[in-house]
Amino acid sequence: MMTNTTTPKPPKAIYFITNNPAGNSIVALKVGADGLLSPGSITPTGGNGLSSIDGATNQSAGPDALLSQSALKVEGRTMVAVNPGSNTLTMLTISPTDPTKLTMIGHPVSTMGEFPVTAAISPKNHMACVGNTGARAGIACFSMNPHTGLKPLMEAQIPFPINQTTPPVGPANTVSQILFSEDESMLITPVKGDPMKNNTGFLSLLPIHNGCPAPQDTRSSPNGTSLLFGTALIPGTSDIFATDAAFGAAVISTTTTTGAGSAAPPTVLRTATIEGQMATCWAAISPLTKTAFVTDVLVNRLVEIDPATGAVLQATDLNDGQPGLLDIVAAGKMVYALSPGNGTTKATVVVMDVSARPARLVQSFEPEGGMRFSQGLTAFM
């Protein structure tokens, strides 16, 4: 059931990173009034890409080279992108006349750790943060200046003791994503555990006060979760919708209190078990349907879930020859999902019309610059 009487506007452009070890770039694709994609531009980030190591094969991972969601992020006309092979973060601005024209602001800055895989922006706090998941794993934050770029807000990152390497071996035991809460007073970071080693992972919450990150985060392992991955804010609440590759997805409250009024650890409110899933990892909530959509790198389908109940509403098989889907953006009446291919199939961005059920595949676009190491998908509205 659709909850909006009017359809939200489509984005003006969508973006992903090539994550090329020989030179990372941002691929920008134009989006028409009908929501469909067309060629745009390729802009170097000033850094290099790098892939993680697949723990099952001990080879470079791809697809899902970064084991994360939000490898680049857009807020307003500002964009940040990670450079895993250079341990840097790049800030860019989007042209007011052409959303595929990007200009670097300042220079890429050190992320204070190794193998950055996820980034977030807080317009309210004029802040960008990054998550590292290599041998020096953790989170770091920077002030954003529209003229000079990024400047560290910390002397050192807040470390995560996950005992990883650079590049990391995954997908287990890695940083999944960072994102700000809806009111931008908290930085949320899910970190995957490793069930084979009885490590359940954790959810990190870092308070933001007066435009500055707190000196330390709090960490807890929400009951029943172990491989928390892609996360989306549930609008109008302090709850998050998070995938868990072990079973499907969960809705988690990040601001619960005890009977005495003191803060309590994040609590799982409900779960969604997805039958036949193998690696449900990426999530987005549609502004049109108010429902969540998730993707699986090993199962080529789009699954819709009701965050209010945990019910699986539909699972749409794509049958387009791709192995599976990664990063996902929900905008307008469409869901856009990246399938970077596996070396034998070409990278594509699929466009799904979710204004009615079943969801309908309306475009499979093969962008120039896409490769099996590519990751991240974000939109400019």
Question: How would you explain this protein's 3D organization?
Answer:
Strands 5, 6, 7, 8 and 9 form a five-stranded antiparallel sheet that branches. The model is unreliable at 257-262 (pLDDT under 50). The protein has 381 residues and is mostly beta strands. The protein contains no helices and 35 strands. Strand 31 (328-331) and strand 32 form a beta hairpin.
Number of strands: 35
Q: What shape does the CA trace take?
A: globular
Share of helix, binned = under 10%
Helix/strand class: mainly beta
| Low-pLDDT runs | 257-262
- First-residue to last-residue Cα separation: 25 Å
Number of helices: 0
Strand content is over 45%
Rg is: 19 Å
Mean pLDDT: 94
**How would you characterize the largest beta sheet?**
5 strands, antiparallel
List keywords for this structure.
about 375 residues; mainly beta; 5-stranded antiparallel beta sheet; globular
Short description:
The protein is an all-beta fold. The protein has no helices and 35 strands.
Topology readout:
Blueprint: E1 13-17, E2 25-31, E3 37-44, E4 53-54, E5 72-75, E6 78-83, E7 88-94, E8 102-104, E9 109-110, E10 116-122, E11 127-132, E12 138-145, E13 149-152, E14 158-159, E15 169-170, E16 179-180, E17 186-191, E18 202-209, E19 212-213, E20 218-220, E21 228-233, E22 239-244, E23 248-253, E24 256-257, E25 263-264, E26 267-273, E27 280-285, E28 292-296, E29 299-305, E30 312-317, E31 328-331, E32 334-339, E33 348-353, E34 360-365, E35 375-380
Parallel strand pairs: 4-15
Antiparallel strand pairs: 1-2, 1-35, 2-3, 5-6, 6-7, 7-8, 7-9, 10-11, 11-12, 12-13, 12-14, 16-17, 17-18, 18-19, 18-20, 21-22, 22-23, 23-26, 24-25, 27-28, 28-29, 29-30, 31-32, 32-33, 33-34
